[in-house]
Amino acid sequence: MSARSPLLTLWFWLFVAFLFAPLAVMAAMGFRDSGFVAFPIQKWTTRWYADALADRDYRVALWVSVQVAVWSTLLSMAVGVPTAFAVARLRGVVRAAAVAVVVLPAFLPIVVSAIALRMFLGRLGMEPGLSAIAFGHAVGSVPFVVVMLLTRLNAMSPSLAEAARNLGADEAIVLSRIVLPFLSPALFGAFLFCILLSFEDFMRSFFLGGFDQTFPVLLFARLRFGFNPGLAAISAVVLAATMLLGLHAERFLRRRGIDR
Amino acid sequence: MTRLLVRARRLAVYRTAIDALSASPWLRALVVAVVPVLWVLVTNLAPLVQMVAISLLDRYPLPPGETAAWTTRHYRAFVERPLYLNAFTRSFVFATLVTALTLAVMFPVAYYLSKAAPRSWRVRLILLVVAPFWTSEIIRSFAWILMLANRGAVNSALMWLGLSDAPVEMLYSRFSLAVGVIYLSSLYMLLPLYAALEKIDDRLLEAAADLGARPLTRLRRIVLPLARDGIVVGCTLVFLLAVGLYAMPQLLGGPGDTLFAATIGQVFGRAGDSWPLGSAFSIILILAALGWVGLFAALVGRGGRRRVVR
Fold first, then answer.
1. C-alpha angle A129/A135/A139, rounded to 5°?
2. Which domains, from first to last, does chain B contain?
3. Quick check: B62 and B49 in contact, CB under 8 A?
4. Which of B194, B233, B288 is nearest to B99 (CA)?
5. What is the pLDDT of residue A161?
6. Which residues in chain A have Cβ-Cβ distances shorter than 8 Å to B243?
7. Label partner for B129 (CA 20 to 30 A): which of A193, A223, B58, B195?
8. Domain range spanning residue A138?
9. Which of A14, A19, A68, A150 to mutate to test binding with chain B, by most B CBs within 10 Å of its CB?
10. What is the pLDDT of residues B165-217, one digit of tens each?
């Protein structure tokens, strides 16, 4: 295109290197045959990876993370889908105001919204713990669910539902046969997105958790005590798993634009 | 599913309910709106309102049966104690600088992806760039510790190449924290910029080039004004993320560089009547951050419009 294209291309690939080098370094560090974290790596071992996968604390924390992710995702979808329907009915200033209120949590510093929620849940009598974390994650995820579904709903012609009604479908059938199938790519995408958002969250899990530690909270606690290659190994394993899931989610979101 | 619904129509109760729904848009609106309105009230607004209330209370939580007096002393404590004010100022200056740096780093990347990269590669390149962002802040902080430590990857490479004899101290400084924050937030800059740049019609740039506009002129007079919305959204997202960071500064930042979000966390973690103080700080952080972002949006928005008209 322009004369500066080679420079742009170089800059882009430097950025890709910036993104992946630390992650590659971390995965490599998990293979270092020594108790200390340092370069260069002269002797290699798979011991750290084996130890990390067998470590009971990691397994417990990962299980907490999975449970939280599933519950918070179900809650986010249960709230996000009707919210998107409700907002889609609004027009003009009212709609802008509704969107602003719904996406508000995404624009607050997470420390603040996590602490505010903790104080509020305490007032309601909900103790810090697994359910509080799941609830907190849902608060953070609902804005994303609503925005994703709204994008898709806006692409849907109202005449589809009209035609179904004219042909005698009642509201339940319109919802189950017309609206939900049309939304399905966005629904799947939002579902996976919520799981990932919950799984990677640190702040809300940290402030809303009692004795239940999610994986990022456990990792944070361990990192403050010191480093060993085992931490790099388990991080690399979790990284690989979430990246695969993330790529999968992206594929669903990408379909949003097609078959309008 | 449909067969089930058709069979359900034989039940009078179901038929009455669903026909009432079909007949009245108002009833439909009511059914659809219950969950969202409750959710927004309970999760988005009530905690904030409670926080504002607590910040104005003398003490909280209260023993049963007692009441607290209203006071503004927690807001005054913020202005009177240099410790807090310094952390606040440091956070804002740091977050602003990091936002500017992120914009500078990501603008060429977004431009490459939206304009220069081969069209058939674009989706794959974006997937490539987005992939690392599915990892938690903690894992990414740790990865940068391994890069920047005295015996980390970067120092090891520098010494192997003979570029330095002794390790360069990089970790636990504002430098390492800035690198980490750019790493954490670059996607939030990239996606809005990409969306804005992609919409710019290539023919505009070609026309300008035909009329003799040099690349820098085209950038300044066409690309930047048209990318204004993307720049504003990207900077807003990155700034709000950076100003509220809590974990990364503790893992990558220097010992003396406490940021305001960490101060808030510490205040809440303290024993005694610290909740009102922490709440007051939280409200100050929200208002200041949104105000700063709003000011930026207003300034850039107006500046851009003037440039287009002239």
1. 140
2. 2-50 (no CATH), 82-309 (1.10.3720.10)
3. no
4. B233
5. 76
6. 109
7. A223
8. 56-257
9. A19
10. 788 888 888 899 999 999 999 999 998 999 889 888 888 888 888 887 788 88
